[in-house]
């Protein structure tokens, strides 16, 4: 695809691209927005370097792509509830996103995507890995595709958040979604299950559901479907949650890694 105002450099054949020629801290022109939207649709996750953004600018960037969502599991900042702090230091017992996942697939309408700005990162370590669920679906056998078509799976946040916050007496979202999802923009099919939120496939015996999900998780974790991003101070990652997994690598304890994320509201998977 041709780009007139942006420079878009693919990082792998299947997923990920670095984008140059845009200041995300300033309002996007119509053409910049069109090309970023095009690049996200094509590459699934976009990476930017040397970006300075206030919380207001961060939210304005997200709103160009859709309404912002309030995180259903953890609170946002007091003055900016749409902005979630992503922080780890020497006192951390866990970090967000240590396991493969798509964000908040437990929600009835999971997010379109997320934009993460990292002002502070360790000198080494702290990468984020992304995986293409288009590639995971495309490389399944035709028999497996036929088997999965029409199945739904339950995505449940309670096992995650009740383990992290056992003192909170609340119920988190639990929703059933198609195992195979059609992207509303690209029209491509992708796997829409993940090890963090998906608990079982509806209507299958427990053992069969576990075996099928176990196979799909192993298959989707193939390094051939992945891109690994090495953060530098003030880098930004913008991923399409509808067709990707991601995982934060916590290999930098006790160093500090700190940033902020906005989440763009999505729609019900079909």
Describe the protein's topology.
Elements: E1 7-10, E2 17-20, H1 30-43, E3 45-48, H2 55-65, E4 68-69, E5 83-88, E6 113-120, E7 128-132, H3 133-138, H4 142-148, E8 152-156, H5 158-164, E9 174-178, E10 180-182, E11 189-191, E12 198-201, H6 206-220, E13 226-229, E14 235-240, E15 244-248, E16 257-264
Domain TauD/TfdA-like: 7-262
Protein name: Taurine dioxygenase
Pfam families: TauD
CATH superfamily: Clavaminate synthase-like
By secondary-structure content and strand pairing, the structural class works out as: alpha+beta
Task: Tell me the series of helices and strands, N- to C-terminal.
Answer: EEHEHEEEEHHEHEEEEHEEEE
Provide the residue-averaged pLDDT: 95
Strand content: 25-35%
The tally of structural domains comes to 1
Radius of gyration: 18 Å
Q: Could you name the ranges where pLDDT drops below 50 across 5 or more consecutive residues?
A: none
Number of strands: 16
Shape: globular
Biggest β-sheet strands, sense, barrel:
8 strands, mixed
Estimated helix fraction: 10-25%
Number of helices: 6
Q: What is the CATH topology? A: Double-stranded beta-helix
Question: Can you name the CATH architecture?
Answer: 4-Layer Sandwich
- State the end-to-end CA separation: 27 Å
Query: Class in CATH?
Result: Alpha Beta
What does this structure look like?
- By secondary structure, this protein is α+β, with helices and mostly antiparallel strands.
- It has one domain: Double-stranded beta-helix.
- Helices cover 22% and strands 28% of the residues.
- It has six helices and 16 strands.
- The protein has helices at 30-43, 55-65, 133-138, 142-148, 158-164, 206-220, and strands at residues 7-10, 17-20, 45-48, 68-69, 83-88, 113-120, 128-132, 152-156, 174-178, 180-182, 189-191, 198-201, 226-229, 235-240, 244-248, 257-264.
- Strands 1, 2, 3, 4, 5, 6, 14 and 16 form an eight-stranded mixed β-sheet that branches.
- A hairpin with a 6-residue loop joins strand 1 (7-10) and strand 2.
């Amino acid at each position: 695809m041709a780009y007139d105002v942006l420079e878009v450099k693919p990082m792998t054949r299947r997923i990920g691209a670095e984008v140059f020629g845009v200041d995300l801290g300033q309002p996007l022109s119509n053409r910049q927005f069109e090309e970023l939207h095009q690049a996200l649709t094509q590459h699934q996750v976009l990476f930017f370097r040397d970006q300075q953004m206030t919380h207001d600018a961060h939210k304005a960037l997200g709103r160009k792509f859709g309404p912002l969502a309030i995180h259903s599991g953890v609170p946002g900042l007091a003055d900016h509830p749409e902005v979630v702090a992503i922080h780890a230091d020497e006192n951390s017992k866990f970090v967000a996103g240590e396991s493969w996942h798509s964000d908040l697939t437990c929600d009835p309408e999971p997010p379109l995507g997320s934009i993460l700005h990292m002002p502070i990162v360790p000198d080494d370590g702290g990468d984020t890995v992304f995986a293409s669920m288009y590639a995971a679906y495309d490389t399944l056998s035709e028999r497996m595709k036929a088997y999965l078509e029409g199945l739904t799976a339950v995505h449940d946040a309670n096992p995650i958040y009740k383990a992290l916050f056992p003192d909170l007496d609340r119920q988190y979202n639990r929703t059933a979604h198609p195992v195979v999802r059609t992207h509303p923009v690209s029209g491509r099919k992708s796997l829409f299950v993940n090890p963090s939120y998906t608990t079982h496939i509806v209507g299958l015996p427990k053992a069969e559901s576990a075996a099928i999900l176990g196979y799909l998780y192993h298959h989707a974790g193939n390094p051939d479907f992945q891109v690994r991003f090495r953060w530098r101070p003030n880098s930004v990652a913008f991923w399409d949650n509808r067709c990707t997994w991601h995982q934060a690598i916590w290999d930098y304890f006790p160093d500090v890694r700190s940033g902020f994320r906005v989440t763009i509201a999505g729609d019900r998977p079909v």
